[in-house]
Structure formats: structure tokens, C-alpha cells
């Protein structure tokens, strides 16, 4: 998409740092330079205000990524693009069959209605729940990692969705302040929500997480 849009040497492309590095690598392969902008706390997608603040005379495009099945605010991002005269390119996430998507949403609703001790995802319209990502309150990464170990010990598969934001990797290191990106990397945990899960398996997730609720206290 970048090459087809004429993006190349001397251009900058605004990308999210929260996620994998493939987007930044694609920008480099086009000959342009990736510029990292912060994310929205609820969606984990690019924050339109942060994107607007990152635009300069070299900005050629914004690469929008929909994260975890949560749609980015494309309307506002396109408004930013029109206002500044830059392209807005979307990387879509693969669509699941309707039955599978409906089942994941039902499982997500079940978890969100019963989980305690974690901050459940914002169940906005259009969320596909490719991953069911919660936040573990407390003191950041140490508490999140301890919570994950305890949940795994109870037989629940979970994983950290983004271990290191792209702007903190050796290849793309940037001395830039992205507080929501770094906070999300420290607090988020993906719990299982697959369409094939049984009600008993979902109950095990709830039981394992709720048993830990209150053990981790926010820092003051």
C-alpha cells in the first residue's frame, strides 16, 4: 500500500508502537521513516490527537492498525489526514466466519460480566475479540507478570500480547514519550476467548482471575 501510494525516500509515516514491528519494517522497506504515535487507552489503536501532534512537513501517511479485533477510530483519523493533507492507510485484521465471530463475542460478554480483579475490554460495537485483552491493576509489569503466572498455575492459558513496544526495540529505538503505549505494554494480558471453548473452560478463567482479585493493589 505504501509503495502504491507513492510513499518513499524522504517521507515519514506515522505508525503505532504498540504491537509487532512489521508495520515499522514495512515503512522502512518503502524507503520512508516510521514515526511512532501514542495509542488510545481504550482501543489500543492510534490516538487521533497524538497522530495530529506528530504530523510535520515530511509526513506522507498514517498507517492505521485495528488491534485485538477492536476497530480504530478511522473517522477521526481520516479527519486528521484531510486536515493535514496526508494519506490514511488501514491494515485490516482478518475476518472470522460469522458463527465463530458471534461465539467469541458471546464468550467475551460472559467474561466481562463476571470477571473481577481485572479491567475488562471496552465492548464497543464492532469489536471482534480476536484477543480478549484485560488490564491487571497494580504496580505495572511486575504485578501483571505475577498475575499471569498465578493464572497459568490454575490451568488457564494466557499471554502478554505486546511484550516490548516497537519504539523500545533495538532496531527502532526512539527517545519519545508514549505513556499510554508503555502503560498498556506493562498492564495488558490476553485471556482465552476462543469460539470452541466450553462453558466450563470459561468458568475456570473467571474462577482463576477472581481468586486473585484484591491481591494486587494500585500504587499510590
From TrEMBL:
Keywords from the named record: Aminotransferase, Pyridoxal phosphate, Transferase
Cofactor(s) in the UniProt record: pyridoxal 5'-phosphate
InterPro entries reported for this sequence: DegT/StrS_aminotransferase (IPR000653), PyrdxlP-dep_Trfase (IPR015424), PyrdxlP-dep_Trfase_major (IPR015421), PyrdxlP-dep_Trfase_small (IPR015422)
Pfam families assigned: DegT_DnrJ_EryC1
UniProt keyword annotation of Transferase present: yes
GO molecular function, one term: transaminase activity
Protein's UniProt name: DegT/DnrJ/EryC1/StrS family aminotransferase
Gene3D superfamilies in the record: Aspartate Aminotransferase, domain 1, Type I PLP-dependent aspartate aminotransferase-like (Major domain)
Family, similarity comment: Belongs to the DegT/DnrJ/EryC1 family. L-glutamine:2-deoxy-scyllo-inosose/scyllo-inosose aminotransferase subfamily.
Gene source species: Streptomyces durmitorensis
Amino acid at each position: 500500500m505504501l509503495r502504491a501510494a507513492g510513499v518513499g525516500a524522504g517521507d515519514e509515516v506515522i505508525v503505532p508502537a504498540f504491537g509487532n514491528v512489521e508495520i515499522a519494517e514495512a515503512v522502512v522497506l518503502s524507503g520512508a521513516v516510521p514515526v511512532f504515535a501514542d495509542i488510545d487507552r481504550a482501543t489500543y489503536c492510534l490516538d487521533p490527537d497524538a497522530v495530529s501532534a506528530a504530523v510535520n512537513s515530511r509526513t506522507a501517511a498514517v498507517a492505521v492498525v485495528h488491534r485485538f479485533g477492536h476497530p480504530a477510530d478511522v473517522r477521526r483519523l481520516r479527519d486528521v489526514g484531510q486536515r493535514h493533507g496526508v494519506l490514511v492507510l488501514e491494515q485490516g485484521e482478518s475476518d472470522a466466519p460469522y458463527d465463530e465471530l458471534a461465539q467469541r463475542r458471546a464468550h467475551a460478554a460472559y467474561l466481562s460480566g463476571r470477571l473481577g480483579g481485572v479491567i475488562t475490554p471496552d465492548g464497543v460495537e464492532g469489536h471482534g475479540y480476536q484477543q480478549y485483552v484485560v488490564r491487571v491493576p497494580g504496580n505495572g509489569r511486575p504485578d501483571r507478570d505475577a498475575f499471569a503466572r498465578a493464572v497459568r498455575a490454575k490451568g488457564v492459558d494466557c499471554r502478554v500480547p505486546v511484550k516490548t513496544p516497537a519504539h523500545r526495540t533495538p532496531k527502532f529505538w526512539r527517545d519519545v514519550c508514549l505513556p499510554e503505549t508503555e502503560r498498556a505494554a506493562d498492564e495488558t494480558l490476553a485471556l482465552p476467548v476462543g469460539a470452541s471453548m466450553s462453558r466450563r473452560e470459561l468458568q475456570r478463567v473467571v474462577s482463576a482471575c477472581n481468586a486473585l482479585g484484591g491481591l494486587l493493589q494500585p500504587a499510590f
